[in-house]
Amino acid sequence: MNAIELLETQHEEVKSLFDRIEKANGEARRQLFEEIADHLAVHSAIEEKHFYPATRAARTEELLQQAVEEHLSVKRIVADLLEMDPGEAQFETKIAVLKEQVEHHVGEEEGELFPEVRKLLSEDELEDLGVVMEDLADELEEMGLPRAAVPAETGEAAPLE
Ligand SMILES: [Fe+2]
Questions:
Q1: How far is the CA of 10 from the centre of ligand 1 (A)?
Q2: Could you tell me the distance, in angstroms and rounded to a whole number, from the CA of residue 23 to the centre of ligand 1?
Q3: pLDDT tens across 32-57, in order?
């Protein structure tokens, strides 16, 4: 799959999980949050390890620097939530902030970054990059609990190289 299509598919998946968690309670809520955390962990890993380094250029530099900072902010909220009980009052508030930040990030990627990347990389390059990203996503999912890596990634933004 083309790298951009892969990321857009993941964006849709996470959006639908956020829609579902708004209507869920108790144990279902916790499970949906864990699913969201796993999705975000895999998504940020394949972007940070492959997509961002492969799309780094003068015209994308600022967008990519912002993107890794936004990932950091999202990871910090996810790490907080992983330690909380869904019954806590702050849980719902933090989910709402997480959703806002993810929506903002997705909007910037789809609205600004991806159009630049389409100018930088050929169809073949996007296909090859997509394969490498999908392989890493599969590997992380097979290892299980991708979200477990998130708390260790909250110190600073991922490097772009
Ligand atoms: Fe991202």
A1: 10
A2: 25
A3: 999 999 999 999 999 999 999 999 99
| 70 Cα to the center of ligand 1, angstroms | 8
Helices 89-108/26-46 angle, 10° precision: 30
Share of the chain above pLDDT 70, in %: 100
Token code pair at residue 125? 């390059």
The domain ranges of the chain are: 3-151
Condensed to tens digits (0 to 9), the pLDDT of residues 134-152 reads 999 999 999 999 999 999 9
Q: What is the CATH number of domain 3-151?
A: 1.20.120.520
Ligand 1 midpoint to CA 27 (Å): 28
* C-alpha 158 – ligand 1 centre gap (Å): 12
